[in-house]
Amino acid sequence: MQEEIKNVGWLYGLAIASSLGMVTFGFNNGVFNLIQDFVSQVLGLSGREKITFVSNVSSFIPLGGLVGALFSSAFLGRFGRRLSLMIADILGIIGTASILYGNIHSIYTGRLIVGFSIGLNSVIVPLFVREWSPNQIRGTLTSFPPVSIVLGLFFAFVLGFGVPEYNDQGVYTDQGNEWWRLTLGFGALFNVIRLFSFLFIFRKESPTYLYFKDQAELCEQTLASIYKVKTVKSKLNTLKLEREAFLKKGEDTFLDLLNPEFRRATIVGISLALIQQFNGINAVNYYSKVLMKGSPQSPFSQTTITILTNSITLVKLPTVLFSSFMVDKAGRRTLFLWGVAVMAVSESLLSYFSWNEMPIASICCLYVYLFGFGFSIGPVFWVYMAEILPEKGITVVLVTHWIGYFIVVKSLPYMVDYLAVGGTFAIYSIICLIGLIFIYLAVPETKGLSRPQIINLFSKKATKVVQAQN
Prior knowledge:
globular, 0% strand, mainly alpha, 21 helices
């Protein structure tokens, strides 16, 4: 049934404001890429100390994110969706202040705290937006969080242009430059904006949360401010049925994910999280400057490397916007299949050109790979995960996501050292090929389906569902 909305602008505003937490995700994902050498020099680090510092700073975000995702269910149960996101903003501001204090230990501590805040956001934002989203625009609204991740990367790379030049010996000429503090601190701006928007503009809790907490009257008032009367009654009836089923089986636990109702959806969600991480995207986000630089005989100047690194988001931003437009038209499964196929082919070619020392061809392949990621597994993973899983399932999938994220950023320097760029991306291309086969065989389409219909879909035999959709 087409849901009658009377305040669609408010829904879009809420989705945008909520997704500011994911801007901090993308920003802190890429912010250390261009300034790691400069910050290391300011702190007087070189050799093995520098390698350890860069590795720790890069991996502490996913480590904190893993812990934040694990604790997200406790926050949701105690504080609800909206207040939990406000707490995440406060933690993000505190973590950023610690980073800006400027010594090694405060930077480590700050990155862990910011990572914890991002981990909370990664679970709660998609859930919160999904619970507010009408069926006909659910794909568009739930695509705002992944679009925001790429927007955060864009801000990080743009600010990287302010880092001073270095001379022929690789020494930065202006070590007193404080631009690095502004760069690292900029992400907290989005925490501040969302915190104030939730305090003064978007003051409503999720209708689902309200109904399940025995606040049916407030839930109805909240729905009535967004939908027309007929749709309000329909939604209340759906929530009533869901709550009755919830009370009948008792409090949700992680073991419920093993039941037929959610088992297949959980397996699919975990598998997509692994595909999303182990295709190498965070290797590019964290170390693209190193990948662009390549060998000591690299034909690119420092300025060219900076421009090439920053241009990554100029590829990803329009493609992820294209994805948000197409997700409710082409569907989730179609975008997954085409995008991962593009990624597998481009990474294979990138590996070949890298082995044969053809840097320009390698970089062209890298851009094609980013195009494939940007309209498929990158943003659509977040839409699909929020659609097919309950709260506990989202937590499990995001924990898997953060573990994969940590492994990739921690292992990449060693992989490049032992396997070179060519060997590293050969492994990533094989993972994409395996992922493509899995998606074709096991991932059904969910476009336009209601929540009960999606649960029904995954309760059936996956092969029969997918065969019917092929």
